[in-house]
Amino acid sequence: xxxxxxxxxxxxxxxxxxxxxxxxxxxxxxxxxxxxxxxxxxxxxxxxxxxxxxxxxxxxxxxxxxxxxxxxxxxxxxxxxxxxxxxxxxxxxxxxxxxxxxxxxxxxxxxxxxxxxxxxxxxxxxxxxxxxxxxxxxxxxxxxxxxxxxxxxxxxxxxxxxxxxxxxxxxxxxxxxxxxxxxxxxxxxxxxxxxxxxxxxxxxxxxxxxxxxxxxxxxxxxxxxxxxxxxxxxxxxxxxxxxxxxxxxxxxxxxxxxxxxxxxxxxxxxxxxxxxxxxxxxxxxxxxxxxxxxxxxxxxxxxxxxxxxxxxxx
Length: 314
Known about the structure:
The chain is built from nine helices and nine strands. By secondary structure, the protein is an alpha+beta fold. A hairpin with a 4-residue loop joins strand 1 (26-29) and strand 2.
């Protein structure tokens, strides 16, 4: 099949998701302060190839997860948090305009001082606790879903897998996020992601087994939070709330100056929203793009049974 499509004709050089297969959606840079996240789909031919069902499910999953993410941002609009990426504009529904964290944590960590790393740890915990207060867990806490903005402030993003406490999958997502938080804390302290350099899935499974059994050998830089990290990896932290974990961590590294938990330079979000509208006015629609209803109908016309939730739970 051909390359994926997006709702607008987007320059490939502006895509920040290049180098990885699309999963929830694709992110494109508008400028140094704004990105747009869009769903994707693959062109549907009259004679789909052997991977047709995979392409079909990827497209449907992209629609659904972007819709879930938009819902989280609507909730956060009433209680914004300085360490959670802010949604700037949600019209039309086919895309999300978000503030940009220019520096991926994976790159920024190596240049950070110990004081800055401790600050980022407190900021990450503050963001996770805010989600907990709203009745959600992130669903995919991971190093790649954290960035650092131009104010040196940590930002958490990518909420397509966010799970509400009323959902049947909440406990599974919560346990997964406690494990993910432990890995993020470990990376913030040490610059090491245990599975980042695994050669294949067999090695990934082996490392994850070491983590869950408490056998992974941590580096000296992470010893300060050794018990918290191992508690997350082995499942013990799931018995606590994220707020309780935050208090434990602050008891070890200190609560810090409250001023360090916020961006020192306020952003003009109204001006940023105006730039989003201007971008939409200039953008060219992709003529081959199908709405979700059209996409489902097209697959059904080829004899495929399309049901709600076919893309899975993420």
